[in-house]
Write a structure and sequence with these properties.
The chain contains 18 helices and no strands. The chain has 398 residues and is an all-alpha fold. Helix 3 runs antiparallel to helix 4. The longest helix is centred in the first third of the chain and has 33 residues. InterPro entries: MFS (IPR011701), MFS_trans_sf (IPR036259).
Amino acid sequence: MEPLLMPGQNPRTTVWLLFFCQALMNATMVGQVAMGALIGHSLAEDKALATLPMAVQMTAVMVASIPASLLFARFGRRAGFVLGALFSITGSLTFAAGVWQGDFVLYCAGAVPAGLGFGIAQHYRFAAAEVAPPDYRARAIALVMAGGVLSAIFGPELVKHTRELVAPTLFLGTYLVIACLPPIVLLLLTITRLPPAPARPKTRTPLIEIMRRPAFIAAAGSGLVAYGTMNLVMTSTPIEMMLCGFGVDASATVIQIHAFLMFAPGFVTGRLIQRFGIRPIIVAGALLTMGCVAASVAGVSFAHFGIALGLLGIGWNFMFVGATALLATSHTAEERVRAQAANDFIVFGTVACTAFLSGAIHAKAGWAALNLMLLPALALALGLVAWQAMRSRRAATA
């Protein structure tokens, strides 16, 4: 895929602006992860539904994939990202209303626009890939995703310091503050040079043909395993820690460690991909995630939770950045929007399922069983990467 270089702005400057946009949008999600399950647990009569708000939000992320692709294709990246920020504001304010009213249904309703906003924000990494030259593409993708480092630090700290801001309604002030983050994104977008809507090709490659390519299958498979396994464990962590006697600050700190290590490797993941290749980095991520499983089943001390979620974060980063870089090799510039939409629909459809299942599995089967469920999925990802490597070598030989 050729870069869509924009006149008047260095591609690296554009990537850094996208970095800050991604950081602010991710902060809204990191804050939600730190408190969403706790709020759901307090508002829902059936505690198995504690993770339902997160499940609804991830379903909305999935649903956003196809409409977002149509929006980007018709009006360009800027219009899509502006709409995503507006959705995010609406979601935060609806969450606040649900908390204020103590209404679980209203609180779940806020997850819809919040999820749509976050779903659109997932395309910042694709925008980085589009503006970057080929030799800088993997680093650009990783750098934009590394914007989550700021959100990893800021999101949980925001929860800690604002949860009692509007006493006595816990977390109301947090959502009101989070609603102020997307407007900053809107300001940054005014100075960011973004690709226009792509030209419509005279002949369109059928989507099923794109999806049948080995690189697409391995990229989508690795991406869905990376995000699905991470979300399955992360969503239930605050609840498990609460049941083990830890308070909100402790669980927020563990989520902070996890989120930081999800995104901090992004400063070097691109360089590692340049040096070792895409597939070895995906494999390394899968092995690190297996380390998370080992730490989780070994005990329930604060150190066990911190180490497990830290390994989970690094593993996610290696697998997901690698999958995104691999996806960029599976399509042409004209095919990019449809390929990206199909990929994200698959990935976040899986994430939505894991969010729905996380609370129920945790409530019925327990923490250890939930973690052990990651192993078959990781084996599948490793198998797909090996299969794609074999097909690639055969094609090169032919």
